[in-house]
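REQUEST ID: PR-0412
SUBMITTED BY: lab tech R.K.
PRIORITY: routine
TASK: structure prediction, single protein chain
INPUT:
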Amino acid sequence: MKIGIATFLFSDMPLEKMLKHVSDLGYEAVEIQTKDYSDFDNWRPGPHLDMDRVLSGGAAEYKRLVQKYGLMISALGEHERWQLGPNKEKQRRSNRYFRKAIQTAHALDVPVVVGFTGCPDWSAWFSWPSTNIEKWEDGWKEFRHVWGENADFAAKHDVKIAIEVHPQNMAYNLETAVRMNKEVPSKALGINFDPCEYVWQRIDPVVAIHTHGSRIYHCHSKDIEVNEPYLAKSGITSTGTWDRIDRGFTYRCVGWGDMNWKKMITAFLQVKYDYVLSYEHEDPVMSPEDGAEKAIQFLRPLIIKRPIKKIWW
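STATUS: complete
OUTPUT:
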């Protein structure tokens, strides 16, 4: 298993400087964003990847630069939110962009594109009151059509789609993530496992890993701190900014929260996931620089370098 990093946290660094920096820290893989996500409505290239340049003949040069620093690209991040929904022009544009990310991944020999499912009606996110159930089922019909086509496109390009379970998407918890793979059974569609998005909903991440099994194609490593006294006050859906000290839960750097990473790494190996743990910095207390340093220092000793091949007793 390799330790990687989602490079958006160093979006102020030029590509080569960023690659050297994360390599010097000891990271083995990078997860590159396809666009600038400071404004979801604008399709600006990300600071570290110009898909047009890659697709017009620049793939070999880009790969050489990444390899120069002893790195691999674990995934491309294409976190659009509009693949589903009533705005058909935005939906078409978003799905075209997602497929462009798949083509770019293919050109770069990157096996995974990470993204969200989207949701056609965010008011239907919770199925209460029960009048929302019909909207929710309509959302699954649209999901089958759109993501079935995206999965077929990915399969033709030998790329896997790893969906991150996340609020305000069709796949937002363990049950809906399992349903996602039933609605679109293509092996090209699987999971980008971010344990935090399960734990804040009080879902056991080890149970989730065992449930998803071989459908886990990529993993985000970040931590979460559940503040029990304030959880009793605000619940799991507290509002306000992430630096509120009285939130029910807060994202943290790996090793600074409540996650049991030994149990999770064990569970990954039990389901034969042996790819990349990609650090994603969303800690509201420490800087990205601190987070990147502390995450790899914490994770490196936990990596099982030689998983058992045969039980001898």
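NOTES: The mean pLDDT is 92.
REVIEWED BY: pending
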